[in-house]
């Protein structure tokens, strides 16, 4: 028997926010945070409440911020050191910032990040957070969608959860940044990506991880970077990973954001997957991303 899908209440009045305004946005996660100007140096108390909002809601949205790259780096660093972003050329003069751009001339039905993933889960220490700011948005489309991986785990049967708890996933960048993918990246006109044999390396992470800050358990596999299950045959891995990929990204677990200029999303990669929609042919979409370091996933 599976349990029913009941989104977890995100916060309660005993823990009201005092420094910022936090309004729940989606049923499966997401909150809009207001009452704060991220271009300023933030008090520790404000930073602590933003972190709390991220932990409670998994992804938070700030409207109308318009940060410079330097300000975005300063904001990100309040939540931890910079996480390396191999293969992607950073923005000139801003080594901690990458551009996520789709040019108006690109007509392919996919874009950077359009397969479900948790950012760079192939690293030994995958990032905690990503901060994405909209610099140029299409008149329609171009949304980002996140899927709540606490719900993905909690809605599986006890038997399936028990089996998954004993398993480890094999993560690799090979299908994203292996040399044979260079042709695909060359289609992304506004980005400079260099594929390499380094992408063939593998990392083992638990299929079910315990979030280091909330202590809650969630699924930690994704379509883009989880290439196998440790100690399983290929056909067994594929069967299980296909099931988990479909289960973990079902609509009931998702929250979707339609971008406006100056919006910022700050999300927790440890308990979310996400993807970008490529449904705005003929228009340019331009974002900048900073990435906050995380730690080695543990059971
Ligand atoms: O452009 C987006 O909406 C998301 C980009 C993405 O997937 C990423 O930065 O990891």
Essential attributes:
single chain, 299 residues, alpha+beta, Double-stranded beta-helix, 7-stranded mixed sheet, 3-stranded antiparallel sheet, 15 strands, binds 2-oxoglutaric acid
The main pleated sheet reads as: 7 strands, mixed
CATH domain class: Alpha Beta
Measured as a percent range, the helix fraction is: 10-25%
CATH superfamily: Clavaminate synthase-like
Shape: globular
Number of strands: 15
Task: Summarize the structure in short.
This protein is 20% helix and 24% strand. The protein has 299 residues and is an alpha+beta fold. The protein has a single domain (13-292), classed as Clavaminate synthase-like (Double-stranded beta-helix).
């Amino acid at each position: 028997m599976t349990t029913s899908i009941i989104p977890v209440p995100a916060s309660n009045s005993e823990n009201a926010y005092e420094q910022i305004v936090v309004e729940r946005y989606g049923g499966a996660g997401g909150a809009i945070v207001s009452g704060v100007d991220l271009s300023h140096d933030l008090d520790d108390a404000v930073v602590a409440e933003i972190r709390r909002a991220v932990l409670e809601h998994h992804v938070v949205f700030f409207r109308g911020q318009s940060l410079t790259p330097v300000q975005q780096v300063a904001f990100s660093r309040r939540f931890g050191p910079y996480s390396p972003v191999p293969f992607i050329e950073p923005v000139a003069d801003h080594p901690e910032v990458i551009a996520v751009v789709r040019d108006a001339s690109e007509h392919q039905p996919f874009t950077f990040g359009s397969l479900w993933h948790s950012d760079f889960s192939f690293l030994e220490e995958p990032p905690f957070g990503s901060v994405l700011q909209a610099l140029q948005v299409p008149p329609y489309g171009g949304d980002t969608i996140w899927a709540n991986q606490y719900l993905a785990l909690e809605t599986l049967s006890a038997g399936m959860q028990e089996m998954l708890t004993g398993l480890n996933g094999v993560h690799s960048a090979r299908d994203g940044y292996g040399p044979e993918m260079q042709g695909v990246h060359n289609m992304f006109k506004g980005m400079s990506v260099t594929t390499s044999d380094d992408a063939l390396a593998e990392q083992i992470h638990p299929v079910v991880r315990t979030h280091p800050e909330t202590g809650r358990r969630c699924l930690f596999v994704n379509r883009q970077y989880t290439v196998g299950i440790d100690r399983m045959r290929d056909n067994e891995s594929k069967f299980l990973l296909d099931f988990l990929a479909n289960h973990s990204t079902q609509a009931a677990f998702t929250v979707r954001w339609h971008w406006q200029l100056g919006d910022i999303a700050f999300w927790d990669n440890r308990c979310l997957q996400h993807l970008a929609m490529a449904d705005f042919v003929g228009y340019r979409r331009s974002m900048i991303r900073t990435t906050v370091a995380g730690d080695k996933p543990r059971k």
